[in-house]
Amino acid sequence: MRSKGWKLIGLLLVLSLIAAACATDSADDTEAPAETEAPAATEAPADDDAPADDDAPADTEAPAMDLEGTITVLVHQNPPMVEYMESFNADFTEATGVEVDMSVVGAGDLSTVTQTRLTAGDIDVIDVFGFANPVQDYMTGANPPNWQTLIDAGLLMELSGEAFVGNYDEASVADACTYNGGVYCVNLGRVSYSGMFVNDTLLAEVGIETPTTWEELVSSCDTVKGAGYKCMVVGGADGWPIFVGAYGLFGSFYPDQAGFVEALWTGEATWDDAQGIEYFNRLQTYASDMLDPEVTGLGHDAAPARYLAGDIAFMPTGVWQAPAMADATFDWTYIPFPGSSNAEDNQFLFGKYDQGWAVAEGSTNPDAALAYVSMFSEPDVYQGFVDATGFLPTQPTATLNSPLGEDVADLMSTFRVGFEQYWVAPTGAGQYSNGSVAASLFAPFNEFDDAAELAALTQADLQAGLDASG
Predict the structure, then answer these.
(1) Strand partners, 76
(2) What is the pTM of this model?
(3) What residues contact residue 224 under an 8 Å CB cut-off, 6+ apart?
(4) Residue 420: inside a domain, yes or no?
C-alpha cells in the first residue's frame, strides 16, 4: 500500500495549513473555529483540486517547517487493521521522516490505557471508539463515559478547524466525535455486530434454505447437527464474542434500542416481564444448544479460522471478520441474525461507530500527529483501510468493494446504533444488571441454566441501582 498523490510538495502545502491552524489555536485556546468555517462533510477534496506539479512552489519557497522525531500511536487489537496500520506507518515515515511508535492493546483495555497514557503525556495519536453512552436527562446520578471525562479534563485536542475533518460524512462527525459543539476525533467506520456469516454451501448440501425466523434457525441447527456438522462458532474463550454474537437476537426483540434503554430506566419495561423472559429463553438456546461446545476453547481471532474449515453452518459476529472470509473455499453470505419469530423483525443491522483517531492535547509533536491523521484521511489511503478492515465507510467517497459490501448494501438503510452504545447502568446496580450480555452467563460458559431465574436476577440488580439513584 503506497498512498497515491502524496507527493512531497503536496505534503508541504498540507502541513503549512496545519501549521497555520495550530498557530491560530495557540493564539486563543478558548475559541474553537466556527463550525461554519469547516469544510462541508459531504464534499471530499477532489484529486484534481491538488496543485499540479508544474504549478507547485519551488522547494526554496516551501514553508519553513520540517517534521522530525517520533510520534506514539495507540490502537486496539484487530489483526486486519493492525496489519494495515503497520504498512501505513511505513508510508508515513517514508513521506515525512517521522518515525511511528505504535502500541497495540486489547479492545477491552483501550479505555484504561488511553487514560493512563494521556495523563502521563506520552501519547500523540489515539485510537478511540465512537462517542457512546452519553448520560441522558433521565439517568439520575449516572457516571459520564470515559471519553467525556477525557475531554472535560482537556486531554483531547479540538479538531473542528482541521481540513481533514471535511473528508468524513456529517453524520459520523456529529454522532461519533462531537461534544459540546467541538469535534474531538474523526471516526473511521461503522461496524455491524448483529449479523452472522452463513455457509451457503453447507446449507445446500444438507438441503435447507437460509433461515429468516427463529424457528427456522432452530430447525436449521437441528438438521445441520443431524447430518454430522456443527451449528455455530464464536470465540467463546474470550467471553465477549458470546454475547456480541447474540446482539442480533437482542435487537430483534427490542428494535428501538435507545427507547428500550429509557424504558428500563423509567420502569416501563423490565428484564423479567413476559417479553424479557422469552428473550432469556432464546439466549439460553443460543448459548447452550446452538454454539458448539468446542467454542469454549477458541479465542476471537481463532474462530474465523475454525469456521473456514467448512463444517460449521453459522458464525454470528461482526463485519470486521469479513477479511478473514476471503480465504473461504465455500460460498457464504452475511445476514441479520433471525432472532424473532416474525421475519420482518429480522431485517435490521445493529452496530456502532468503531475506531477513530483523536490527537492528544498534550502531544509533544503536535504537527506530526496532525499530519499523521491528515495523511490517513486522504481518500485513497482511507479506501485502502476500508478494503483491509471491512468497516462500513464514513467517508462519502469510499465504497465497500467486497462480497460483504454486496450483502449489506441493501441493509444499510436499516442500520441502527445498538443498545450497548446507549446503555448506562445506574450507579449502584449489580453485576448482572445488563441483560444484553447475559448469553455468556449460561452453561457451558457460566453457571446459569434457568432462564427465568437469570432474568429475575438481572432485573433485581438493575432495580437496586434504580432505587439507589432515587
Answers:
(1) 105
(2) 0.71
(3) 202, 203, 206, 208, 230, 231, 313
(4) no
Looking at the domain assignment, is residue 412 inside a domain?
no
What are the helix and strand counts (H, E) for the chain? Answer: 16, 14
Least confident residue range of 21-30, 227-236, 362-371: 21-30
H/E run at residue 197: strand 195-199
User: What is the average per-residue pLDDT within 70-81?
Assistant: 94
Between CA 444 and CA 292 the distance in angstroms is 10
Q: Residue 26 — pLDDT band, cuts 50, 70, 90?
A: very low
Q: Which three cell numbers stand for residue 262?
A: 429509557
Contacts of 268-276 spanning 24+ positions with Cβ under 8 A: 270/459, 270/462, 271/435, 271/455, 271/456, 271/458, 271/459, 271/462, 272/452, 272/455, 272/456, 272/458, 272/459, 276/435, 276/455, 276/459
The answer to whether residue 51 is domain-embedded is yes
Per-residue pLDDT at 24 exceeds 80: no
Mean pLDDT of 318-345: 92
- Asked if 47 and 5 count as a contact pair (C-beta separation under 8 A), the reply is yes
Residues 248, 173 share a domain: no
C-alpha 100/C-alpha 156 separation (Å) is 19
User: Mean pLDDT for the chain?
Assistant: 86
Domain that holds residue 457: 195-348+425-469
Q: What is the pLDDT of residue 380?
A: 97
Contact 304, 222 (CB under 8 A): no
In a domain, 411, yes or no: no
Q: What are phi and psi for residue 333, nearest 5 degrees?
A: -135, 165
Name the one residue in this structure whose C-alpha cell is 444438507.
206
* 171 pLDDT higher than 50: yes
Phi, psi for residue 31 in degrees, rounded to 5: -115, 105
* DSSP per-residue string spanning 245-299: TTHHHHHHH-S-HHHHHHHHHHTSS-TTSHHHHHHHHHHHHIIIIIB-GGGGG--
Q: How far apart are CA 336 and CA 349, in angstroms?
A: 6
R_g of the chain computed on alpha carbons:
24
448 with 398, same domain? Answer: no
Number of domains in the chain: 2
Pairing relationship of beta strands 190-192 and 350-353 according to DSSP bridges: antiparallel
Are residues 177 and 210 both part of a single domain?
no
Q: Minimum mean pLDDT among 80-89, 97-106, 388-397: which range? A: 388-397
Instruction: Record the cell numbers describing residue 70, joined without a space.
Output: 517520533
| pLDDT beyond 80 at 56 | no
How many CA atoms lie less than 13 Å away from 248 in the CB half-sphere? Answer: 31
DSSP state of 379: H
What average pLDDT score do residues 431-442 get? Answer: 97
pLDDT score for 423: 96
Cα 19 from Cα 362, distance rounded (Å): 16
